[in-house]
Amino acid sequence: GWIPEEIGYLDKLEYLILEHNSFNGSIPSKLLNISSMKHLELEYNNFSGTIPSNARYSLPNLEKIHFDHNNFVGNIPKNIFNSSKLIEFQFSVNAFSGTLPNIAFEDLRYLKYLALSRNHISSNLPRSIGNITVDHFWADSCGIYGNIPLEFGNMSNLIAFSLNGNNIDGPIPSTFKDLQKLQAFDLSENGLIGSFIEELCEIERSNGLNSTIPFSFWSLKDIIEVDFSSNAFIGNLPLEIGNLRAIVLLDLSGNHISSNIPTTIGSLKTLQNLALADNKLNGSIPTSLGDMVSLISLDLSQNMLTGVIPKSLESLLYLQSINLSYNRLQGEIPDGGPFKNFTAQSFTHNEALCGNSRLHVPQCVKQVKKTSRAKKLLLKCIVPVVVSTVLVVALIILLKQKKRKRNANNLERGLSSFGVARRISYYELVQATNGFSESNLLGRGGFGSVYQGKLPDGEMVAVKVIDLQSEEKSRSFDAECNAMRNLRHRNLVKIISSCSNNLDFKSLVMEFMSNGSLEKWLYSNNHCLNFLQRLNIMIDVASALEYLHHGSSIPVVHCDLKPANVLLDENMVARVSDFGIAKLMDEGQSKTHTQTLATIGYLAPEYGSKGIVSIKGDVYSYGIMLMEIFTRRKPTDDMFVAELSLKTWIRDSMPNSIMEVLDSNLFQENGGKTNDILTHMSSIFGLALNCCEYSPEARLNMADVTASLIKIKTLVLGANGV
């Protein structure tokens, strides 16, 4: 339906929130003359038409205006900015045209959010934009052209902004160094030229930057991802590259870097993806690359590297892909470790490589020298001496064996932090769990039991023992090991080790979560989560799913997301667990399984009816969980019968009856202040419903979900003065 003209007679109206509905038609002009109006939120509808530009708007108290994700056309009226109390202005994803209105930004001293992305605004950025006070500014894919004005550096409150997908040219202004609060920006897919600014430590790809990477960059010890690919950077890779101790991805491909690969690169123990392809690198491949124990992907193709391929690379247990083609390498291609799985494409167009015939290279010729009589006589004399020496050394080793055992546990824990699995025997697990006693039992599930344990070094662990009564459950163990082995994220439960005793015993040793499961906290009378704790937990879960779906080398589908599989550590940080039925999407974006494996109530429709598994199924389960955590109602609750489900219950409550579905404990924890919560719950439930769309294609992706919840959290903290 549409908004009736008569709504303009509600002269005391302060809040009009109609977001996430199917309203259509145009906006009544009288709506923009309600002087008491504070929040006008109409996003995610089908409104169309123009916003009357000749109206004399009278909105002196307006704080929020959200018209994004509709079908509005025409110019953005200048008069709409006359509200001096304006905090949020969101007009993204419409069909507005024309130019940016010439307004006095300095009068909007409270404005924090300005969103204009995905409209048809064909103009340059006015110099007056430097007077704006916003801390978030988005204008992606708007057709903006010209240079970024120097006055941009005056936006001292700016935390994040994005101008990607426009026609901006010229250099990045040197005044960017004055944006001291800036945390993130995106200028990708423009026509920027010029050199890299020394003061900035991150820059987006797909531009034409052509200077050296500043030396100060290599001191960023906590940076996680760096992608400088497809630019024109020159210079050398310094020894200081080894300072990037937390880095996971380093992509410098498609530049003009000319130097040896420094041996200090082996210090990057956390690095998973290294791409130095299409540069002018020379010299040999350092053997220290074998120390990069987390490496999954290595691309050194299209350079001028010489020498042999180091045998040390055989020790990279997690290496899944390597590309050394188009270099000047020679000698034998290693054939151990991960090299057993690589194909000829990884080594083509080199100078003189040899090795296994399956790699389409000639076999290596090994010269056998004849042993002279003198050498044979020498060996007869030397062997007894060597044997005696070995015996003496063996005695010394036996004497020091106890001392080595004392240090073994500390060494294994150190290796574990580098991604190398610790070795824990079945006997150690029996001791740690008191013989898998009932007093150590944490819980039982469909695939086995979980016990609390204490290792000899004092570390508390959770031991998941797989029930091997069926072949299916045995396969579950292999699936979980395979899924979790290469996954490392702060919001995933860490696998410390696995233990397999032939076919009789299989277990996973995981870090112990002292606060138990989210299900326990939701439904126990002894625990209660406040609003911010619940929001933080769902942000943590969203971050974990975003990593599984988009951050790992192979997308992983969890398949069984529910509160029982979300654990809480001592700081109430959420960790997603239980990958017993996880699926690796290495052959496409979806798979079909004839057997239903997930939990009823959290199943996506396509999974329950057709057995289709995809990352969108996890998004659906997440949406159900997001509704459940704020209502304290399971999707299998007895109240949900016939046509009534958790999803329809929430949908029918919006926007006027949200209070009736919320967990009453939220209001008790908040001192009975309902407005503080209701202001944000409409957005949260709207997000959850978008996750639970019937069509998988219509559901959000987890990156957008995470960003939306973080934005809501920012608003919550801002409203509370935190």
From TrEMBL:
The transmembrane residues are 377-399
Q: Which residues bind ATP?
A: 464
For this protein, the Enzyme Commission number is: 2.7.11.1
- Catalytic activity, per the record? L-threonyl-[protein] + ATP = O-phospho-L-threonyl-[protein] + ADP + H(+); L-seryl-[protein] + ATP = O-phospho-L-seryl-[protein] + ADP + H(+)
Location(s) in or outside the cell: Cell membrane
Q: List GO terms (cellular component aspect).
A: plasma membrane
- Where do the coiled-coil regions begin and end? none
Q: Which SMART domains match?
A: LRR_TYP, S_TKc
Protein kinase domain: from which residue to which, for each copy?
Answer: 436-716
Superkingdom of the source?
Answer: Eukaryota
- State the annotated membrane topology for this chain: Single-pass type I membrane protein
User: What PROSITE patterns does the record tag this protein with?
Assistant: PROTEIN_KINASE_ATP, PROTEIN_KINASE_DOM, PROTEIN_KINASE_ST
* GO molecular-function terms, A-Z: ATP binding; protein serine/threonine kinase activity
Give UniProt keywords alphabetically. ATP-binding, Cell membrane, Glycoprotein, Kinase, Leucine-rich repeat, Membrane, Nucleotide-binding, Phosphoprotein, Receptor, Repeat, Serine/threonine-protein kinase, Signal, Transferase, Transmembrane, Transmembrane helix
The family assignment reads: Belongs to the RLP family.
Write down what this protein is called.
non-specific serine/threonine protein kinase
Lineage of producing organism: Eukaryota, Viridiplantae, Streptophyta, Embryophyta, Tracheophyta
